[in-house]
Each structure stands twice: as structure tokens, then as C-alpha cells.
Amino acid sequence: MSAATAEDIAQAPSTPPVGLRATARIHAVADGRGGTALPLLAGEGPLALRRTRSSSQAEAGVMLVGAMSAPLGGDHLTVEATVGPGAHLSLASAAATLALPGRTGAPARYDVHLTLEDGASVRWLPEPLVSVRGSDLRVRTRVRLAPTARLVLREEQVLGRTGEVPGLLRSRLAVECGGRPLVDQELACGPGAPGGWDGPAGLAGHRALGQLLVVDPAFAEDAPAAAVLGEFAAVTPLAGPAVLVTVLAADALRVRELLDAACRTYGW
User: Fold this and answer.
1) Are strands 76-83 and 108-116 parallel, antiparallel or unpaired?
2) FRET partner for 118 with CA separation of 20 to 30 A, picked from 69, 127, 152, 207?
3) Is residue 5 in a domain?
């Protein structure tokens, strides 16, 4: 076998660098004593998990702690949580997540997968996601609930830091309850997003947005009414035991104030 020449090496296709891959896994189960145990609590890379004290004895608290800067372009981060029958989990993050540009220009991905079995509940209340100039992030949140499960899910996005244009952000939320679609929606904003994203029919110049989804079997008997919380905040009952609150604001502080008020009204 002849040795490769310098020309052969120069013409050989280069392998593009691969970004970071990391998954955080959580499994919560009822402990038989009115509480919730965590037989699986495992983080990787920038996704470190810490058990925290919860406001309820029945609920296990978990904090997602960023151990390094991520996601950068090309990274793929995943958070997976499975909550067994009768178990209760409160999941939060310690700080805002910054979507940062990478060296290759490849998009980053951040996936959240939640599975709730009969009688389970999850409160997923992360800090805001900040889309930094030059970044390209694709977020996908997928939730599967048993018909008797409960969920409080908050999402907040900030488009750019102070005085900064945002990166490209694509975010999709897909939720199933009892095997039937409850909500499936997608947001795209920033340079490269479909035209009109920042116009009157889109974000209307706002740079902070958020939503709160509450799923509760009790809503099947007593559904929340549609309402307006402010000039750019609305409460929308869904075709199922759920309500969706959407908010636009000039800054993240105002978004949080409105979502916190909605959580006190519709959550637990």
C-alpha cells in the first residue's frame, strides 16, 4: 500500500468539528411515605443537577446548574425527566441560559423531554433564555402527560442583551395529554426568521416574551375563562384541561411579574 501524498491529504474532505453533547437525566418516584424519591439524578458536562429543598413534603426539588458556558453553536443539550405514578417534581435552573455563537456557525440545540405518569405532577420553572447576537439556537420542549397528571411549565425568552440585536431563535413546544395533542406551537425570531416576526402581527418591537402552561384535570370541570392581563398579555383556555398565558414586554422583569401572577392564579 502506497503512502498518501501531500496532495491526497490536502484534497481529503475535512471532518467538521462536533459540538458538545450532554444529557441530564432525572427519574422521580413516589417513596411510599407521602414523598418523592430520586433514584436517578445524573448530569453531564454543563448540565449539573442538585437536589434542593421543596416547599412541599410530597415534592422533590431539583436545580439545574450550569457548570460551563453552553449552549454554543454546534452543541446539543438535553434534559430528560420521567415522573412515576403519584410522584411530584419541582425542576428549576440556577441562572439564565445564554445562547452563544460557536466557531463553526452550526446551530445549537436544547431539548427538554418530560414524561408524567398517572397522578404525577411537574413544575418546570427555568430562568430566562437569552438569545445573544450571532447565536443560532433551536429549542424543543416535548411533554407527555397521563390524563390525571398536572403540569406547570414556564418559558421566557430575551432577545439580545442590553443594546444588542438578538441571534436566531427557534422554539417549539409540543404537549400531549392522554395521547392526544394539547398544544403544538413554534416561535421563530431574530435575523433569518420568517419576515414579519418583529412587526405588528409578531412581537411588535418587544424584546422579552414568555408563556405559562398549566395542565390540571380539575380544569375539565371548572375551566379558566379567557382574559386579558395587560396590553400584551392574554389568558387562553385550551381544548383540554389546560390554560396558556402568553406575555410580551419590554424587559424580562415585566414578563416575570405577569407570569408569576398567572402562576399564583392558575397553578399550585
Assistant:
1) parallel
2) 127
3) no
Residue 266 covered by a domain: no
How many other C-beta atoms are found inside a 10 Å radius of the C-beta of residue 240? 21
Residues 6+ apart with CB under 8 A from 50: 62, 63, 65
Contact predicate 59/88, CB 8 Å: yes
The three three-digit cell numbers of residue 232, written as one number:
400584551
Among 127, 103, 124, 138, smallest CA distance to 61 is for 124
Domain count, the chain: 1
Q: Under a CB-based contact definition with an 8 Å cutoff, are residues 159 and 190 in contact? A: yes
CA distances from 97 to 7, 34, 132, 140, 224 (A): 45, 34, 10, 15, 31
Cα–Cα distance, 21 to 74 (Å, whole number): 9
What average pLDDT values come out for the chain (268 residues) when binned by 10 residues? 48 58 97 96 95 90 86 94 98 93 89 98 97 95 98 96 91 96 95 86 90 96 90 91 96 95 92
In a domain, 231, yes or no: no
The predicted pLDDT at position 68 comes to: 72
Domain holding 54, by residue range, is 19-217
| Nearest of 6, 7, 42 to residue 24 by alpha carbon | 42
pLDDT reported for residue 12: 47
Q: What are phi and psi of 234, to 5 degrees?
A: -140, 150
DSSP-derived letter for residue 253 is H
Residue 255's H or E segment, with its range, is helix 252-266
Question: What does the alpha-carbon distance between residue 192 and residue 133 come to, in Å, rounded to a whole number?
Answer: 12
Confidence at residue 55, expressed as pLDDT on a 0 to 100 scale: 80
Rounded to 5°, the CA angle 156-160-164 comes to 160
Residue matched to cell numbers 400584551: 232
Report the C-alpha gap between 13 and 133 in whole angstroms. Answer: 31
pLDDT at res. 15: 45
